[in-house]
């Protein structure tokens, strides 16, 4: 096998493409021949040593991938050699092969492409867990999506619409706002040129959004929370802005509102049956055409450093997928 190895925490430029022995799966594991892998913001953090999960060096980054089962370890019953799968294993995706626990792999229906499979689990799993499981989103409620043109943001627009909600998509440019409209957003806010609180007041008739989906953090967090509806739910998904914000806790009292953490990876480990049910619903929505990953960039695996540059400069709308040729 070959893979991009992270041997120091000096960022993407320090990654090295190397040959390594093709590993054999252990108990409960499978070996996957990787066809495609997607780049997520945590992949950038993990090679800089800034993510909450810190695997021992050296390791192969790449949390999310899709491919074909090539070998099966002892005790694996639901997967067989030749099965197409999508996986979210935390690491291992940026190579030709990886070993993954069978429990983190989802069999792909025949109509599910490897590129879509590689771009599916993290963003849609995270978003379903946040909106449906944590926030208990109901049809007719209003969702504000911050960073709406990004990977989880585009997934949030689609899932909220599939659940029957109204979606207000907030993004940093008119072009990104227009993209969100094509994905189903009812209204958009360009928070670079418009006042977020004023626009939310107008668009919701003064009520505010019932749910705020925030993968960005930074300067807009407090403004969005101050605009939230009574009994609103604020979903803390991530900090793509780089700044972890602080909130005056009196706002939760005044709004009767909840602040909810969304950590899908840990949810999947702790509640595998609930996660499996969520993924079944997501797969059904995909087959019905209600959700589909927005993939703006497809690059060969050899161009991983260019991919990281795009991710780090906030130039990725939706998802970026790396493919192995052949």
TrEMBL record:
Organism for this UniProt entry: Aquabacterium soli
Pfam family, one: ADH_N
Domain of life: Bacteria
Protein name (Swiss-Prot/TrEMBL): NADPH:quinone oxidoreductase family protein
Enoyl reductase (ER) domain boundaries: 11-322
GO molecular function, one term: zinc ion binding
SMART domains according to UniProt: PKS_ER
CDD domains xref list: QOR1
């Amino acid at each position: 096998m070959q893979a991009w190895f992270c041997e120091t925490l000096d960022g993407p430029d320090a990654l090295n493409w190397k040959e390594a022995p093709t590993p054999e799966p252990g108990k409960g594991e499978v070996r996957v021949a990787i066809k495609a892998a997607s780049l997520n913001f945590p992949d950038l953090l993990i090679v800089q040593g800034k993510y909450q999960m810190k695997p021992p060096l050296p390791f192969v980054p790449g949390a999310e991938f899709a491919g074909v089962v090539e070998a099966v370890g002892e005790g694996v019953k639901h997967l067989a050699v030749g099965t197409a799968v999508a996986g979210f294993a935390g690491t291992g995706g940026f190579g030709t092969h990886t070993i993954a626990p069978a429990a983190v792999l989802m069999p792909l229906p025949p109509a599910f492409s490897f590129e879509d499979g590689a771009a599916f689990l993290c963003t849609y799993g995270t978003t379903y867990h946040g909106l449906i499981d944590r926030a208990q989103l109901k049809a007719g409620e209003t969702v504000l999506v911050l960073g709406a043109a990004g990977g989880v943001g585009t997934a949030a627009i689609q899932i909220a619409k599939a659940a029957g909600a109204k979606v207000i998509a907030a993004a940093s440019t008119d072009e990104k706002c227009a993209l969100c409209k094509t994905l189903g957003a009812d209204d958009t806010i360009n928070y670079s040129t418009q006042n977020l609180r004023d626009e939310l007041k107008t668009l919701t008739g003064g009520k505010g959004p019932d749910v705020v989906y925030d993968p960005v953090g930074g300067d807009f967090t407090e403004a969005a929370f101050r605009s939230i509806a009574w009994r609103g739910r604020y979903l803390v998904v991530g900090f793509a802005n780089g700044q972890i914000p602080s909130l005056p806790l009196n706002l939760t009292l005044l709004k009767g509102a909840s602040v909810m953490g969304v950590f899908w990876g840990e949810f999947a480990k702790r509640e595998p049956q609930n996660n499996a049910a969520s993924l079944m619903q997501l797969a059904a929505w995909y087959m019905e055409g209600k959700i589909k990953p927005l993939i703006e960039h497809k690059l060969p695996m050899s161009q991983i450093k260019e991919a990281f540059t795009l991710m780090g400069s906030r130039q990725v709308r939706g998802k970026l997928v790396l493919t192995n040729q052949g």
